[in-house]
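User: Please predict structures.

Assistant: First:
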Amino acid sequence: MGIRAADNRVISVLAQYEEQLAGQYDEGEARAIARAVFLERLGWDAAQMELQKLEPLHESDLLKLYLPLKRLRAGEPLQHILGRARFHGMELSVGPDVLIPRPETEELVELILKDGFTPSVIADVGTGSGCIALALKQGFPSARVVGIDASRDALARAQSNGSDLGLAVEWVEGDALAASFGLPAGIDLVVSNPPYVPVEEADSLLARVRAREPYLALFAPAGDPLAFYRSIGSAALRSLAPNGRLWFECHWKHAQATGQLLRDMGFSQVTVITDMSGNERFVRCVR
């Protein structure tokens, strides 16, 4: 992408983001992305951008702004370009080895924190970037928190995030679908946002999600969308202390089925909860 003299004002850069990302993002999303790049690359917040919107930018600053745009046009997620994502007030390192944290998962954390239950031992199964485990460690600082994932690359990133934030979480390799999978004894809170997109729905995902985020973190086993819920639920049933809690994030199409699965397994107080968009997204139950 060439940088023309006419494009050297802040307002022109914003127009370029809106124009060149029009096929992938709506106008509001494109402007939000541009603001995030200005903040990350130049340290400018929205107020400074507005004050200087008619001012020319140095060529070195233009390069800092247009190179991310080139990568965005190629379908790379903004969080991968910036190398980090915000989650529940934390700044986390992210990359192609972990799922980018979603707003729905922040909702899950908020629900747990407001549940009126103070756990002593927490397990986050499928921890990825560590976002849930680290947010819960912040919320329950005296709790022992264990983050579990089958991917060593994901665990390395989660460990790095924990170190950067000064949060002491234990990181453990474990495959939730393995016959040998288990959880620490005496645990009183299990939480998981497992892979839940049916493989059959792969084409419905945005191309940048399907192509750039880890397959194993996105998709449930073919033909068995409840596989992770069944395995993690069984392990939780064996390990949870009486009155312990189990929380899941789910595909909206399978939240009710997940709730029924947990009832059939013997959990009580099974509740299906909608997200802010009105979709059935979370399931909570008690041992």
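Second:
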Amino acid sequence: MEKSTLRGRQSLSEERGPALRKVLIALAAVCLLAAFPAAAGARTDGLRLGPNKKITQSTSSNWSGYAATGGRFTSVSSNWVQPTASCTSATTYSSFWVGIDGDGSNSVEQTGTSADCSGGQPSYYAWYEMYPKYPVNLSLAIRPGDRMTGSVTVSGGGRFVLTITNNTTGGSFTTTQRANRASLYSAEAIAEAPSSRSGVLPLTNFGTASFTGTTVNGQPIGAFNPDRIDMVSGTTLKAQTSSLSGGTNFSVAWKHS
């Protein structure tokens, strides 16, 4: 199986950002190359946490996690434990990442890991992506339970430094890429379901994805009044995001494929 993705948020209520996500699936003699517009979701239901601190709550058909919006964001970093894929005979997908842009903008600069299922077997791998270029899968070894760190940093002149490190094995990958039209509008840490031309693909049962030490522009993401996003399809809750702890820590729990 070969998969190619372009990651962007989809809202259940409105389309505001043309960021695309593409998935290339090769199953037997069938090959599907898909692309469809993702969109940023409207913020709803403000939840006050104290003076000058507010977290908004929204839903997305393919994202669950936290996103700070409004820019100008020049760095994002988070740690997560690589989830274990609980596979059935179904083909399912999931990704866990940090990035700049993608929520309300048409640029995406991000790096992360995936936990997919095919034929009852799980696969785990790391990648980075600079939309509109295709993502690049990495040879970095990834196993369930590995302690990961991902970061994306603007280095000036349209350049981004993307780093992903497996703290369990000591393996690491860093690349410098250019995106001249990046808006730097959002920064996020996300668990995601990939999408195809026909819609969001089945989400892998990943149990719980735990993110810690999530920072934006060197500060806790909670300092930016971030949007807490639950993944919802119709009336079905697919993944639920916890409240922030210490302004930097949260978890995303799988609920439904």
